[in-house]
Amino acid sequence: MSELTHLDAKGQAHMVDVSAKSVTARTASASASITMQAATLKMIVEGRHAKGDVLATARIAGIQAAKRTPDLIPLCHPLMLSKVSVEFEPDTALPGIRVLVTCKLAGQTGVEMEALTGASVAALTLYDMCKAVDKTMLIGDIRVLTKQGGKSGDWVFDAAEAVSAQVVVESSVDQISTRPHERLQVRFFAELREQLKQDELAVDPAELKAAGFTVTVGGLSDWLRQAQPELDAVLDRAGLMVAVNHKMADNQVPVKAGDEVAFFPPVTGG
Amino acid sequence: MFKIQVCAERFDTGKELDALSQQRTDIGALASFVGYVRDFNERPDVTALTLEHYPGMTEQQLQAITETAAERWPLLGGTIIHRIGRMEPGDPIVLVAVASAHRQAAFDACNFIMDYLKTRAPFWKKEHTLSGDYWVSSRPSDSQAAQRWDNNND
Description:
- The complex is a heterodimer of chains A (270) and B (154).
- With 270 residues, chain A is of the alpha+beta class.
- Chain A has two domains: 134 residues, Molybdopterin cofactor biosynthesis C (MoaC) domain (Alpha-Beta Plaits, 2-Layer Sandwich), CATH 3.30.70.640; 83 residues, Roll (Ubiquitin-like (UB roll)).
- Chain A is 34% helix and 25% strand.
- In chain A, a hairpin with a 4-residue loop joins strand 2 and strand 3.
- Chain A is globular, with a radius of gyration of 22 Å.
- The N and C termini of chain A lie far apart (44 Å).
- In chain B, 36% of the residues lie in helices and 35% in strands.
- Chain B is built from four helices and eight strands.
- In chain B, the strands form two sheets. Chain B has a four-stranded mixed beta sheet with strand order 1-4-6-2, with helices on both faces. In chain B, strands 5-3-7-8 form a four-stranded antiparallel beta sheet, with no helix packed on it.
- The longest helix of chain B has 18 residues.
- Chains A and B meet through strand 2 and helix 6 of A and strand 1, strand 3, helix 2, helix 3 and strand 7 of B.
């Protein structure tokens, strides 16, 4: 792991001197999500909230927050941001809203802290705007998605890598159990989800292996079909599509703990 | 180079096209396609449709499609906006716009992106009609349209 740049040789906090670093175009994007009751989401999307336009308010809050990041994070450099964009994606599957913040500048330090701060405060503002009607809202998924420019080069969030890193951290803290991470997540979409009346289930790949199935998309599908009769009929359909970690996959693709395997009918967008 | 957006809000086609060509003098051609909700499909009297997607994967697939298009044609920019949620007949669903120096690349890339979007991007339509709701079936003609581009190894 690279060393922590905000600590000096004595382990004391200091602000890194970036004057010798070259000026490059920097972009970073970060996400957050807020999960809420379906009725709250509907109210926001339809613009029926008594407090006014929830998304417009949260968008401005996100932009303002990104600009104020150095006031909040002690060792963060003040930056002349050239662009801050805050996007909201209502997601009925959560149900809730996904926040995506992108910050840009030409400068000597990265802008991921600005993007993270913008995403966090946009989510907090969504909470503030809607707390009168829904106090159970949950904020999460605050993370850097992409980072471009600078010495360390381009970086993109990889769900699989993050999950394995999480396992290492948690097992060093607590040796008792990492069971949730020993599983892979199976998701169903559209007509499949409606027929099954469920959108996901967790599967332990070790169980597949123990039952004599290959630990692949095909093996997983066969195992699911023999383990659950209701899945047999639903997964046996012409043109069924499968994705592993957001990439289209066929039966030969291997699967492992931490993967997200999605089954869905042929796509019909456009 | 491509703007990719999956959202519930309605888009303004004129604004999106202007944004692509504004302050550019290298763009000689801008081709676009807008898909709308029809009031008839597998059944007559469609009153509304609901579009579902796979958050994360949908955006990633659209991004991959635009990257493939940019490898095949000399593109100077582009936009894909696809709406999700509930829409009514006459509402725009999708916008694909492609900018290039010359028209042939813009037309072809726009056509290619739509063909690939319809067969590879995880979106699903559920139609609401006077005689009930149903999930729209995929069409063999869409798969054939997408396959045209695979055969043509240029």
